[in-house]
Amino acid sequence: MTRAALTRVATALALAVATTGLTLPVRAQAPVEQGQRQFMNNGCYGCHTVGKTGTPIGPDLSKVGAKYSRGYLERWLRDPSAQRPNAHMPTLELSPQQVTDLAAYLSSLR
Length: 110
What we know:
By secondary structure, the chain is mostly helical. About 55% of the residues lie in helices and about 5% in strands.
């Protein structure tokens, strides 16, 4: 197919998408990016700080990934009191994917 033909096909596809209101699939965000979004959307910053963002009620998580493994962070996010019975952190209602993404983000903090 020639370059001109490819351009016509691409233009026709873009026009079809624009006029029908369809959207093309967007590349899935990496778990770290999703986890950072989960950190904000779930209000984790209300008790924790990362860098200059957040409230210092709970521990500063800016370097938590250097201290704990991703697996430990996943277990902690699923059930903090099972990891440390006297933990002040509540058990969160997170989906398995949210736990995975948050743990990926937290483990990246070094």
